[in-house]
Specification:
The protein has ten helices and twelve strands. Strand 9 and strand 10 form a beta hairpin. It folds into two domains: 32 residues, no CATH class; 284 residues, Glutamine Phosphoribosylpyrophosphate, subunit 1, domain 1. The protein has an eight-stranded mixed beta sheet. The protein has a four-stranded antiparallel beta sheet with strand order 7-8-9-10. It is an alpha+beta fold and 354 residues long.
Protein backbone atom coordinates (compact mmCIF):
# COMPACT_ATOMS: atom_id res chain seq x y z
CA UNK A 1 0.00 0.00 0.00
CA UNK A 2 2.90 2.39 0.79
CA UNK A 3 4.14 1.87 -2.77
CA UNK A 4 0.76 2.88 -4.16
CA UNK A 5 0.69 5.99 -2.00
CA UNK A 6 4.06 7.00 -3.47
CA UNK A 7 2.48 6.75 -6.94
CA UNK A 8 -0.65 8.70 -5.97
CA UNK A 9 -0.19 11.78 -3.75
CA UNK A 10 -2.88 11.97 -1.05
CA UNK A 11 -4.49 15.14 -2.35
CA UNK A 12 -7.63 15.91 -4.30
CA UNK A 13 -9.02 13.66 -7.01
CA UNK A 14 -6.23 11.02 -6.91
CA UNK A 15 -7.57 9.80 -3.55
CA UNK A 16 -10.83 8.92 -5.29
CA UNK A 17 -8.83 7.09 -7.92
CA UNK A 18 -7.13 4.99 -5.25
CA UNK A 19 -10.47 4.07 -3.66
CA UNK A 20 -11.92 3.09 -7.02
CA UNK A 21 -8.81 1.10 -7.85
CA UNK A 22 -8.99 -0.90 -4.61
CA UNK A 23 -12.75 -1.43 -5.01
CA UNK A 24 -12.38 -2.74 -8.55
CA UNK A 25 -9.51 -5.04 -7.56
CA UNK A 26 -11.34 -6.50 -4.58
CA UNK A 27 -14.49 -7.10 -6.64
CA UNK A 28 -12.45 -8.78 -9.34
CA UNK A 29 -10.68 -10.96 -6.77
CA UNK A 30 -13.98 -12.08 -5.25
CA UNK A 31 -15.35 -12.92 -8.67
CA UNK A 32 -12.34 -15.03 -9.64
CA UNK A 33 -12.07 -16.89 -6.30
CA UNK A 34 -15.75 -17.80 -6.00
CA UNK A 35 -15.87 -21.52 -6.92
CA UNK A 36 -18.36 -22.99 -9.30
CA UNK A 37 -21.17 -24.74 -7.40
CA UNK A 38 -20.01 -28.30 -6.68
CA UNK A 39 -22.55 -31.10 -6.80
CA UNK A 40 -22.64 -34.79 -7.44
CA UNK A 41 -24.15 -38.16 -6.63
CA UNK A 42 -22.66 -41.54 -5.82
CA UNK A 43 -24.51 -44.86 -5.52
CA UNK A 44 -23.80 -48.47 -4.58
CA UNK A 45 -25.58 -51.76 -5.18
CA UNK A 46 -23.84 -54.01 -2.71
CA UNK A 47 -20.44 -55.44 -1.87
CA UNK A 48 -19.45 -59.07 -1.51
CA UNK A 49 -17.80 -62.10 -3.07
CA UNK A 50 -18.01 -60.84 -6.63
CA UNK A 51 -15.40 -62.31 -8.99
CA UNK A 52 -14.65 -61.70 -12.64
CA UNK A 53 -14.95 -65.43 -13.29
CA UNK A 54 -18.39 -65.80 -11.73
CA UNK A 55 -19.85 -62.57 -13.11
CA UNK A 56 -21.74 -63.43 -16.28
CA UNK A 57 -21.41 -60.83 -19.08
CA UNK A 58 -25.16 -60.42 -19.51
CA UNK A 59 -25.63 -59.95 -15.77
CA UNK A 60 -22.83 -57.42 -15.58
CA UNK A 61 -24.25 -55.50 -18.53
CA UNK A 62 -27.73 -55.39 -16.98
CA UNK A 63 -26.44 -54.13 -13.65
CA UNK A 64 -24.25 -51.49 -15.28
CA UNK A 65 -27.16 -50.19 -17.36
CA UNK A 66 -29.47 -49.96 -14.35
CA UNK A 67 -26.85 -48.25 -12.19
CA UNK A 68 -26.21 -45.72 -14.95
CA UNK A 69 -29.95 -45.05 -15.28
CA UNK A 70 -30.34 -44.58 -11.53
CA UNK A 71 -27.35 -42.31 -11.01
CA UNK A 72 -28.26 -40.16 -14.01
CA UNK A 73 -31.76 -39.72 -12.62
CA UNK A 74 -30.32 -38.28 -9.43
CA UNK A 75 -27.80 -36.19 -11.30
CA UNK A 76 -30.48 -34.57 -13.46
CA UNK A 77 -32.31 -33.49 -10.32
CA UNK A 78 -29.13 -31.92 -8.97
CA UNK A 79 -28.25 -30.36 -12.32
CA UNK A 80 -31.63 -28.64 -12.38
CA UNK A 81 -31.14 -27.21 -8.91
CA UNK A 82 -33.01 -29.91 -7.00
CA UNK A 83 -32.19 -30.97 -3.47
CA UNK A 84 -29.90 -33.78 -2.43
CA UNK A 85 -32.82 -35.40 -0.58
CA UNK A 86 -34.91 -35.49 -3.75
CA UNK A 87 -31.96 -36.87 -5.70
CA UNK A 88 -31.19 -39.79 -3.38
CA UNK A 89 -34.84 -40.76 -2.99
CA UNK A 90 -35.50 -40.80 -6.73
CA UNK A 91 -32.32 -42.76 -7.35
CA UNK A 92 -33.09 -45.40 -4.73
CA UNK A 93 -36.65 -45.85 -6.03
CA UNK A 94 -35.26 -46.92 -9.41
CA UNK A 95 -33.03 -49.50 -7.75
CA UNK A 96 -35.88 -50.71 -5.52
CA UNK A 97 -38.03 -51.25 -8.61
CA UNK A 98 -35.41 -53.48 -10.23
CA UNK A 99 -35.20 -57.24 -9.52
CA UNK A 100 -31.41 -57.03 -9.89
CA UNK A 101 -30.79 -55.79 -6.34
CA UNK A 102 -31.55 -56.87 -2.80
CA UNK A 103 -33.99 -54.03 -2.16
CA UNK A 104 -37.65 -53.63 -3.00
CA UNK A 105 -38.60 -55.87 -5.91
CA UNK A 106 -35.44 -57.97 -5.70
CA UNK A 107 -35.41 -58.51 -1.92
CA UNK A 108 -34.09 -61.81 -0.56
CA UNK A 109 -36.28 -64.25 1.36
CA UNK A 110 -36.41 -64.72 5.11
CA UNK A 111 -36.36 -68.15 6.78
CA UNK A 112 -40.14 -68.15 6.54
CA UNK A 113 -40.17 -67.50 2.80
CA UNK A 114 -41.29 -63.88 3.12
CA UNK A 115 -39.65 -60.56 2.30
CA UNK A 116 -38.87 -57.95 4.99
CA UNK A 117 -37.59 -54.57 3.89
CA UNK A 118 -35.55 -51.86 5.63
CA UNK A 119 -34.69 -48.32 4.51
CA UNK A 120 -33.29 -45.06 5.84
CA UNK A 121 -32.84 -41.50 4.59
CA UNK A 122 -31.06 -38.57 6.24
CA UNK A 123 -30.81 -34.84 5.57
CA UNK A 124 -27.36 -33.43 6.26
CA UNK A 125 -28.66 -29.88 6.54
CA UNK A 126 -31.06 -30.49 9.42
CA UNK A 127 -29.76 -33.85 10.71
CA UNK A 128 -33.32 -35.12 10.44
CA UNK A 129 -33.70 -38.77 9.48
CA UNK A 130 -36.41 -41.31 8.79
CA UNK A 131 -36.25 -45.10 8.78
CA UNK A 132 -38.45 -48.15 8.44
CA UNK A 133 -37.65 -51.77 9.26
CA UNK A 134 -39.32 -55.12 8.74
CA UNK A 135 -42.01 -53.85 6.38
CA UNK A 136 -43.56 -56.46 4.09
CA UNK A 137 -45.97 -54.60 1.81
CA UNK A 138 -44.23 -51.34 0.87
CA UNK A 139 -43.21 -51.09 -2.80
CA UNK A 140 -40.69 -48.30 -2.17
CA UNK A 141 -39.51 -48.34 1.45
CA UNK A 142 -37.22 -45.35 0.89
CA UNK A 143 -40.24 -43.12 0.23
CA UNK A 144 -41.92 -44.32 3.41
CA UNK A 145 -38.70 -43.58 5.31
CA UNK A 146 -38.82 -40.03 3.98
CA UNK A 147 -42.41 -39.66 5.14
CA UNK A 148 -41.36 -40.81 8.61
CA UNK A 149 -38.73 -38.05 8.54
CA UNK A 150 -40.98 -35.29 7.20
CA UNK A 151 -44.49 -36.21 8.41
CA UNK A 152 -43.87 -37.59 11.88
CA UNK A 153 -41.93 -36.62 15.02
CA UNK A 154 -40.15 -40.00 14.96
CA UNK A 155 -37.02 -41.40 13.34
CA UNK A 156 -37.85 -45.11 12.96
CA UNK A 157 -41.03 -47.14 12.53
CA UNK A 158 -41.18 -50.91 12.19
CA UNK A 159 -43.34 -53.72 10.80
CA UNK A 160 -47.13 -53.36 11.10
CA UNK A 161 -46.92 -49.95 12.73
CA UNK A 162 -44.90 -48.56 9.85
CA UNK A 163 -47.39 -49.97 7.36
CA UNK A 164 -50.32 -48.46 9.24
CA UNK A 165 -48.56 -45.10 9.05
CA UNK A 166 -48.03 -45.70 5.30
CA UNK A 167 -51.76 -46.19 4.77
CA UNK A 168 -52.51 -43.00 6.69
CA UNK A 169 -50.07 -41.19 4.39
CA UNK A 170 -51.77 -42.51 1.27
CA UNK A 171 -49.21 -45.15 0.31
CA UNK A 172 -50.76 -48.19 -1.33
CA UNK A 173 -49.66 -51.53 0.09
CA UNK A 174 -48.62 -54.33 -2.27
CA UNK A 175 -49.05 -58.07 -1.92
CA UNK A 176 -45.99 -60.09 -0.94
CA UNK A 177 -46.19 -61.71 -4.38
CA UNK A 178 -44.89 -58.45 -5.85
CA UNK A 179 -41.44 -59.10 -4.36
CA UNK A 180 -41.11 -62.65 -5.69
CA UNK A 181 -38.30 -63.29 -8.16
CA UNK A 182 -37.29 -66.75 -9.29
CA UNK A 183 -33.60 -66.00 -8.85
CA UNK A 184 -33.99 -65.05 -5.18
CA UNK A 185 -36.30 -68.01 -4.54
CA UNK A 186 -33.83 -70.49 -6.05
CA UNK A 187 -30.99 -68.95 -4.06
CA UNK A 188 -32.97 -69.31 -0.85
CA UNK A 189 -33.75 -72.95 -1.64
CA UNK A 190 -30.04 -73.67 -2.05
CA UNK A 191 -29.31 -72.08 1.32
CA UNK A 192 -32.04 -74.11 3.01
CA UNK A 193 -30.73 -77.34 1.50
CA UNK A 194 -27.20 -76.62 2.69
CA UNK A 195 -28.43 -75.82 6.19
CA UNK A 196 -30.51 -78.99 6.36
CA UNK A 197 -27.53 -81.06 5.27
CA UNK A 198 -25.25 -79.34 7.78
CA UNK A 199 -27.67 -79.85 10.67
CA UNK A 200 -28.12 -83.48 9.73
CA UNK A 201 -24.38 -84.14 9.60
CA UNK A 202 -23.72 -82.35 12.87
CA UNK A 203 -26.85 -83.71 14.53
CA UNK A 204 -28.00 -80.24 15.50
CA UNK A 205 -31.46 -78.71 15.68
CA UNK A 206 -32.75 -77.58 12.31
CA UNK A 207 -31.83 -74.02 11.32
CA UNK A 208 -29.27 -73.26 14.01
CA UNK A 209 -29.19 -69.48 14.33
CA UNK A 210 -25.42 -69.01 14.40
CA UNK A 211 -25.20 -70.11 10.79
CA UNK A 212 -27.99 -67.85 9.60
CA UNK A 213 -25.77 -64.87 8.82
CA UNK A 214 -23.63 -64.46 5.75
CA UNK A 215 -24.85 -67.32 3.57
CA UNK A 216 -24.47 -66.67 -0.16
CA UNK A 217 -22.34 -63.60 0.42
CA UNK A 218 -23.41 -61.45 -2.51
CA UNK A 219 -24.85 -58.36 -0.91
CA UNK A 220 -27.27 -56.33 -2.99
CA UNK A 221 -28.19 -53.55 -0.60
CA UNK A 222 -28.51 -50.24 -2.47
CA UNK A 223 -27.52 -46.77 -1.35
CA UNK A 224 -27.03 -43.22 -2.56
CA UNK A 225 -25.26 -40.11 -1.28
CA UNK A 226 -25.47 -36.67 -2.85
CA UNK A 227 -24.30 -33.07 -2.61
CA UNK A 228 -26.57 -30.44 -4.17
CA UNK A 229 -25.74 -26.99 -5.53
CA UNK A 230 -26.79 -25.38 -2.26
CA UNK A 231 -24.10 -27.37 -0.45
CA UNK A 232 -26.50 -29.77 1.29
CA UNK A 233 -25.69 -33.44 1.75
CA UNK A 234 -28.06 -36.41 1.95
CA UNK A 235 -27.78 -40.18 2.29
CA UNK A 236 -30.21 -43.03 1.66
CA UNK A 237 -30.01 -46.82 1.93
CA UNK A 238 -32.50 -49.61 1.19
CA UNK A 239 -32.26 -53.38 1.60
CA UNK A 240 -34.02 -56.70 1.87
CA UNK A 241 -31.58 -57.66 4.60
CA UNK A 242 -29.73 -60.92 5.03
CA UNK A 243 -30.97 -63.96 3.17
CA UNK A 244 -32.70 -66.57 5.36
CA UNK A 245 -32.79 -64.17 8.33
CA UNK A 246 -34.83 -65.13 11.38
CA UNK A 247 -36.75 -63.54 14.21
CA UNK A 248 -37.25 -60.14 12.58
CA UNK A 249 -33.51 -59.52 12.25
CA UNK A 250 -32.63 -55.91 11.36
CA UNK A 251 -29.23 -54.88 10.05
CA UNK A 252 -27.39 -51.59 9.80
CA UNK A 253 -29.28 -50.09 6.86
CA UNK A 254 -32.11 -48.36 8.79
CA UNK A 255 -29.98 -47.47 11.81
CA UNK A 256 -28.83 -43.86 11.69
CA UNK A 257 -25.06 -43.73 12.14
CA UNK A 258 -24.49 -47.40 11.36
CA UNK A 259 -25.45 -47.87 7.71
CA UNK A 260 -26.68 -44.38 6.84
CA UNK A 261 -25.54 -40.90 7.90
CA UNK A 262 -25.35 -37.34 6.55
CA UNK A 263 -24.03 -34.14 8.08
CA UNK A 264 -23.34 -30.92 6.17
CA UNK A 265 -20.30 -30.30 8.37
CA UNK A 266 -18.59 -33.45 7.11
CA UNK A 267 -20.02 -36.00 4.69
CA UNK A 268 -22.82 -38.33 3.64
CA UNK A 269 -22.34 -42.11 3.93
CA UNK A 270 -24.22 -45.25 2.85
CA UNK A 271 -22.97 -48.72 3.75
CA UNK A 272 -23.31 -52.29 2.51
CA UNK A 273 -22.05 -55.54 3.98
CA UNK A 274 -22.51 -57.65 7.10
CA UNK A 275 -24.74 -55.29 9.03
CA UNK A 276 -24.02 -56.61 12.52
CA UNK A 277 -20.43 -55.35 12.30
CA UNK A 278 -21.46 -51.98 10.90
CA UNK A 279 -23.83 -51.56 13.85
CA UNK A 280 -21.18 -52.49 16.41
CA UNK A 281 -18.72 -49.98 14.94
CA UNK A 282 -21.31 -47.31 14.13
CA UNK A 283 -19.45 -47.11 10.82
CA UNK A 284 -21.20 -44.27 9.00
CA UNK A 285 -21.09 -41.87 11.94
CA UNK A 286 -17.54 -42.92 12.85
CA UNK A 287 -16.32 -41.69 9.46
CA UNK A 288 -18.08 -38.36 10.00
CA UNK A 289 -16.76 -38.06 13.55
CA UNK A 290 -13.14 -38.60 12.49
CA UNK A 291 -13.56 -35.78 10.00
CA UNK A 292 -15.28 -33.43 12.44
CA UNK A 293 -13.22 -34.02 15.57
CA UNK A 294 -9.80 -34.93 14.15
CA UNK A 295 -9.91 -32.92 10.96
CA UNK A 296 -9.24 -35.96 8.77
CA UNK A 297 -10.02 -35.99 5.06
CA UNK A 298 -12.89 -38.11 3.83
CA UNK A 299 -10.53 -40.57 2.21
CA UNK A 300 -8.42 -40.95 5.35
CA UNK A 301 -11.44 -41.43 7.63
CA UNK A 302 -13.26 -43.85 5.30
CA UNK A 303 -10.21 -46.01 4.65
CA UNK A 304 -9.37 -46.21 8.35
CA UNK A 305 -12.86 -47.29 9.35
CA UNK A 306 -13.39 -49.85 6.56
CA UNK A 307 -9.95 -51.23 5.81
CA UNK A 308 -8.63 -51.19 9.37
CA UNK A 309 -11.37 -51.09 12.03
CA UNK A 310 -14.04 -53.11 10.21
CA UNK A 311 -11.54 -55.63 8.89
CA UNK A 312 -9.91 -56.08 12.29
CA UNK A 313 -13.28 -56.78 13.90
CA UNK A 314 -14.01 -59.43 11.26
CA UNK A 315 -16.66 -57.61 9.27
CA UNK A 316 -16.81 -57.24 5.53
CA UNK A 317 -18.42 -54.80 3.12
CA UNK A 318 -17.88 -51.22 2.09
CA UNK A 319 -19.26 -47.71 1.97
CA UNK A 320 -19.80 -44.85 -0.43
CA UNK A 321 -19.34 -41.29 0.78
CA UNK A 322 -19.21 -37.73 -0.48
CA UNK A 323 -18.03 -34.70 1.48
CA UNK A 324 -19.12 -31.07 1.41
CA UNK A 325 -16.48 -30.23 -1.24
CA UNK A 326 -17.74 -32.96 -3.55
CA UNK A 327 -14.85 -35.35 -2.93
CA UNK A 328 -15.81 -39.03 -2.84
CA UNK A 329 -14.58 -42.23 -1.21
CA UNK A 330 -15.55 -45.87 -1.93
CA UNK A 331 -13.46 -48.19 0.27
CA UNK A 332 -14.41 -51.87 0.61
CA UNK A 333 -12.66 -55.00 1.90
CA UNK A 334 -14.49 -57.54 -0.26
CA UNK A 335 -13.61 -58.71 -3.76
CA UNK A 336 -16.03 -56.24 -5.31
CA UNK A 337 -18.62 -53.52 -4.76
CA UNK A 338 -21.03 -52.25 -7.38
CA UNK A 339 -20.91 -48.46 -7.53
CA UNK A 340 -21.45 -45.51 -9.87
CA UNK A 341 -21.10 -41.75 -9.71
CA UNK A 342 -21.60 -38.52 -11.63
CA UNK A 343 -19.80 -35.43 -10.36
CA UNK A 344 -20.23 -31.85 -11.50
CA UNK A 345 -21.99 -30.49 -14.57
CA UNK A 346 -20.34 -32.59 -17.29
CA UNK A 347 -22.67 -35.57 -16.72
CA UNK A 348 -20.00 -38.25 -17.13
CA UNK A 349 -21.16 -41.55 -15.65
CA UNK A 350 -18.57 -43.82 -14.04
CA UNK A 351 -19.58 -47.39 -13.13
CA UNK A 352 -17.21 -49.76 -11.27
CA UNK A 353 -17.33 -53.13 -9.54
CA UNK A 354 -13.79 -54.33 -8.81
Amino acid sequence: MRNIFRLFPLTGAPILSIVLLFTACSRETRRVETPHPTFGILIHAGAGSISKESLKPEREAAVRIKLAEAVMTGHRILQNGGTSIDAVEATIRILEDSPLFNAGKGAVFTSEGTNELDACIMDGRTLKAGAVAGVKHIKNPISLARLVMEKSPHVMMVAEGAEKFAVEQGIELVDQKYFFTQERWDSWQRVRQREEQRDKEQKRPSGTLEQGIGTERKYGTVGAVALDKAGNLAAATSTGGTQNKRFGRVGDCPIVGAGTYANNRTCAVSATGTGEYFIRLNVAHDISALMEYRGWTLEQAANTVIKEKLTKLGGDGGIIAIDRQGRIATPFNTSGMWRAHVLGPDGKVVVDVF
